[in-house]
Write a structure and sequence with these properties.
- It is a single chain.
- The chain is mainly α and 182 residues long.
- It has one domain (3-169).
- Helices cover 70% and strands 0% of the residues.
- It has helices spanning 3-32, 43-66, 69-84, 111-127, 130-169.
- The longest helix is centred in the C-terminal third of the chain and has 40 residues, at 130-169.
- The protein is globular, with a radius of gyration of 18 Å.
- It starts with a helix and ends in a 13-residue tail after the last helix.
- 23% of the residues are buried.
């Protein structure tokens, strides 16, 4: 099986396992700290969740206009294989995609991670299950403390000074309202 085909199987499986682990951990945190399972938010707040969800889906669609989901899965797979082989983070990998600095990437360096967190917050607002809010926090921490650190070292190795200049200008995970890249 080729690398691209493996990516379409392995990466969603790993993401699903991670989401399941975070859901279990969130469920444990909610129970262990006596956090209410639901906050019984007013209908207006829950309706706002629909707007947040719509924004998250539109933002993700905007990202997919510039980079296909299959390309994202493949580059993630290559990075995962490199990590599992314990290769140095700044060592150039087999990733071959170009550095895309258009669309949402002009506002935020990691638009997919932003969209995932926004979608989880939207689902929390809409469904009013505290576990979803804790999962959003866990994913945010996972992205910022683990994934982005390694990924940015790899991007610096792949794209050098161009990525370095981009990273200095564009926020990491919370977008700027105005484009930060030319």
């Amino acid at each position: 099986m080729r690398s691209r085909e493996q990516a379409l199987i392995v990466v969603p499986l790993v993401i699903g396992l991670l989401a399941g682990a975070f859901a279990l951990l969130a469920y444990f945190v909610v129970g262990a700290f006596g956090i209410p399972v639901r906050f019984h938010m007013p209908l207006l707040m829950r309706a706002a969740g629909s707007g947040v969800l719509a924004f998250g889906f539109v933002f993700m669609g905007w990202l997919f206009k510039y980079r296909s989901p299959a390309a994202i899965l493949h580059s993630t797979y290559v990075t995962m294989r490199k990590t599992s082989a314990r290769a140095a983070a700044d060592e150039v990998s087999a990733r071959t995609e170009p550095l895309i600095l258009r669309g949402p990437q002009r506002h935020v360096r990691h638009p997919l991670y932003f969209a995932v967190v926004v979608l989880l917050v939207g689902w929390w607002l809409l469904l009013d299950y505290t576990v979803l809010l804790v999962m959003a926090l866990l994913f945010f921490l996972w992205f910022t403390l683990v994934v982005i650190r390694f990924e940015e070292q790899e991007l610096r190795a792949l794209f050098g000074e161009e990525y370095e200049a981009y990273a200095r200008a564009v926020p990491m995970i919370v977008p700027s309202l105005r484009p930060r890249w030319r």
